[in-house]
Every structure is written in structure tokens, then in C-alpha cells.
């Protein structure tokens, strides 16, 4: 296991970490060049923030959830996000339709199982979407990912408590083997795993990312934007997580000390527009490990 803080650390980046950081920087440039259209079926709390965040980053959002049009939108868009934050059974059915259309059109599908583990409706729907769609990426907090992996970690509504990152990594690996795709479990350390046993940890960011609503939900949409322009969903999820962490750090630098979540949220949105590949290489805090699948 190796740690790197490229450009700022006494320990140089391992070749593997440097390759991943460079790939993330390239994908960020590709998002800005191609401006992928992300079909975001997301919750009522964060729709505006998600649209603003995608636009700031350089992608294009479209929110659409009516059963009459979701297949058409999913087919015309470059990637699909399914976020269960304000779920109903009707919306769950609409998401399944959209997901099947996206799959048929070979568009990447990202699932954010908000609140999975907390209510029966969310549990049932998240499990069904995982089983039926096998999402390219599942992005959730530690408790949500643990639930889908058959485990239990501290949870309060849509938020997760703290958990050792090795435990989170084990849950992510278990779920990745089930979906055949990539799992991104976020927290103080973001944990990535895929079905062939690749894992990565992304550190940094800022705790104020948890003091306004929607940073996790926006990250799911950002993952979809990166997956739309990348070949490898692991690299795409890594790049999205890293971009979010580094944008959080840039926002903190501008904010200075203290807790002003509303101002931080504004600076974070600006940072999504301003962050560049060189910032990812400079501020990225990454640990890699390869395990047997
Ligand atoms: N303690 C922390 N320090 C720094 N960044 C954090 C911390 N907790 C979460 N984050 C970041 O906040 C964003 C949202 O993650 P999280 O709060 O886990 O998701 P959710 O909002 O779905 O519960 C992610 O980018 C994550 O890396
Ligand atoms: C508070 C809340 N309730 C249902 S969805 C939602 C937003 C959650 O946003 P995030 O998980 O990104 O903080
Ligand atoms: Mg949150």
C-alpha cells in the first residue's frame, strides 16, 4: 500500500498512483471538452444543486422522471444517475425503466442508494436496481454501501456514522463482486473497489462538505459525467471522487478558518469550475492497493 501527495509530499508518487492521477486529470479535461449530458433522476432536495454543480464542472444536466419520457431521455443522454433520496414506488419503477433503456443504449448507469438500510422501500428498491441493472458504479456513503453488501454500519437517515475504512473497503469489494462494476463508498476517506479486486482510497476534502446538503448526491452525478467520457468506470469514479475532494480543499483555502457552510458551498461550486488537472496532481491524496478478486 502506498501513499502519495503528488507535488507536495516528501514521498514521491508510486508509478501506479501517478498513472491514476494523470488519468483523472485527462478525464477532467475530457468532461470539459465533451460536456456530457447527464440524465439525473435525483431527489427533490438536491435537484438544483446537482444541475448547478454539473454546469459548473462543465457537463450538462437534464432532470426527467415521468415514466412517459424516461426511456427517451436515458437513450439520448450520455449517462444516467439514479438517486433514491426522495423515493416513491412509482419513481422506483420509472428508474427501472430508465435504467433498462440506458443499458440497452450502452450508457453508463450510476446508482446512489440514498438511505438504503434505513427504510424497507429504499432497501427493496436499491436491491432491485442493483440486481436488475448491475450499475457501472454504485456511489453511496459507508452505511448505504454496507447495507447492500449485507452488512450494517452506523446510520442516521441519509447520513452515515464513522467506520474504519478497511471495513468499508471490505463492504465495497463485496458489493462490487456482486454487481460486476465499481463501488465508491464516501466519507473522510473515499473508498473505491471493483470486481477484479482493485481498491483505492482518496483522502483530503473538507469536513464542511458534510455541512450542506447534496455534496454526496452531486458526487453521484459527477461520477456519471466522468463515466460518460471514460472507458474505465474505476478511473471515472476515482476521478470524480478526487475532483470533489480537491474542489473541497480549494473552497476551504478560499474560506479560511471557521464554519460557514453556506459560503463554503458557494466556493465549492466555484471550485468545481476552476479546478484543473494540475490541482488534482498537486493536492490529490491517494492510497492504492491491489488484492486478489
Ligand atoms: N470527514 C470528512 N472529511 C472530508 N470530506 C468528507 C468527510 N465526510 C465526507 N466527506 C466528503 O463529502 C462528500 C459526501 O460524502 P458523504 O457525506 O459520505 O455522502 P452522503 O452525503 O451521501 O452521506 C464526499 O466528497 C466525501 O469525500
Ligand atoms: C436530506 C435528504 N433527505 C432525503 S434526500 C436528502 C439529501 C441528501 O443529500 P446528501 O446525501 O448528498 O447530503
Ligand atoms: Mg451528506
TrEMBL record:
Cofactor(s) needed for function: Mg(2+)
This protein's pathway: Cofactor biosynthesis; thiamine diphosphate biosynthesis; 4-methyl-5-(2-phosphoethyl)-thiazole from 5-(2-hydroxyethyl)-4-methylthiazole: step 1/1
One Gene Ontology MF term: hydroxyethylthiazole kinase activity
The UniProt record lists the keyword Transferase: yes
A GO BP entry: thiamine biosynthetic process
Binding locations of ATP: 139, 186
Primary enzyme class: transferase
Cross-referenced InterPro entries: Hyethyz_kinase, Ribokinase-like
Sequence positions that bind substrate: 63, 214
EC number: 2.7.1.50
Assigned keywords, A-Z: ATP-binding, Kinase, Magnesium, Metal-binding, Nucleotide-binding, Thiamine biosynthesis, Transferase
Reaction(s) this enzyme catalyzes, per UniProt: 5-(2-hydroxyethyl)-4-methylthiazole + ATP = 4-methyl-5-(2-phosphooxyethyl)-thiazole + ADP + H(+)
Cited function: Catalyzes the phosphorylation of the hydroxyl group of 4-methyl-5-beta-hydroxyethylthiazole (THZ).
Similarity field: Belongs to the Thz kinase family.
HAMAP family in UniProt: Thz_kinase
Protein name, UniProt field: Hydroxyethylthiazole kinase
Organism whose genome encodes this protein: Brockia lithotrophica
Amino acid at each position: 500500500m502506498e501513499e502519495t501527495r503528488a507535488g507536495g509530499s516528501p514521498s514521491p508518487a508510486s508509478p501506479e498512483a501517478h498513472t491514476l492521477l494523470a488519468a483523472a486529470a485527462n478525464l477532467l479535461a475530457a468532461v470539459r471538452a465533451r460536456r456530457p449530458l447527464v440524465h439525473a433522476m435525483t431527489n427533490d432536495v438536491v435537484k438544483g444543486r446537482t444541475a448547478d454543480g454539473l454546469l459548473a464542472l462543465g457537463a450538462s444536466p437534464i432532470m426527467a422522471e415521468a415514466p412517459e419520457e424516461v426511456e427517451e431521455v436515458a437513450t439520448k443522454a450520455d449517462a444516467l444517475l439514479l438517486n433514491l433520496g426522495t423515493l416513491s414506488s412509482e419513481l422506483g419503477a420509472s428508474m427501472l425503466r430508465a435504467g433498462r433503456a440506458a443499458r440497452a443504449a450502452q450508457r453508463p448507469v450510476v446508482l446512489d442508494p440514498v438511505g438504503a438500510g434505513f427504510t424497507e422501500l429504499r432497501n427493496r428498491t436499491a436491491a432491485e436496481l442493483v440486481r436488475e441493472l448491475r450499475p457501472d458504479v454504485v456511489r453511496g456513503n459507508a452505511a448505504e454501501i454496507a447495507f447492500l453488501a449485507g452488512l450494517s454500519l452506523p446510520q442516521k437517515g441519509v447520513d452515515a456514522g464513522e467506520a474504519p475504512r478497511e471495513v468499508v473497503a471490505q463492504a465495497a469489494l463485496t458489493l462490487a463482486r456482486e454487481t460486476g462494476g465499481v463501488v465508491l463508498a464516501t466519507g473522510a476517506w473515499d473508498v473505491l473497489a471493483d470486481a477484479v479486486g482493485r481498491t483505492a482510497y482518496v483522502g483530503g476534502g473538507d469536513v464542511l462538505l458534510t455541512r450542506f446538503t447534496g455534496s454526496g448526491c452531486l458526487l453521484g452525478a459527477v461520477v456519471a459525467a466522468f463515466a460518460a467520457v471514460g472507458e474505465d468506470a474505476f478511473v471515472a469514479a476515482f476521478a470524480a471522487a478526487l475532483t470533489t475532494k480537491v474542489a473541497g480543499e480549494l473552497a476551504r483555502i478560499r474560506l479560511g478558518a471557521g464554519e460557514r457552510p453556506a459560503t463554503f458551498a458557494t466556493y465549492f461550486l466555484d471550485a468545481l469550475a476552476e479546478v484543473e488537472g494540475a490541482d488534482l496532481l498537486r493536492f490529490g491524496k491517494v492510497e492504492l492497493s491491489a488484492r486478489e478478486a
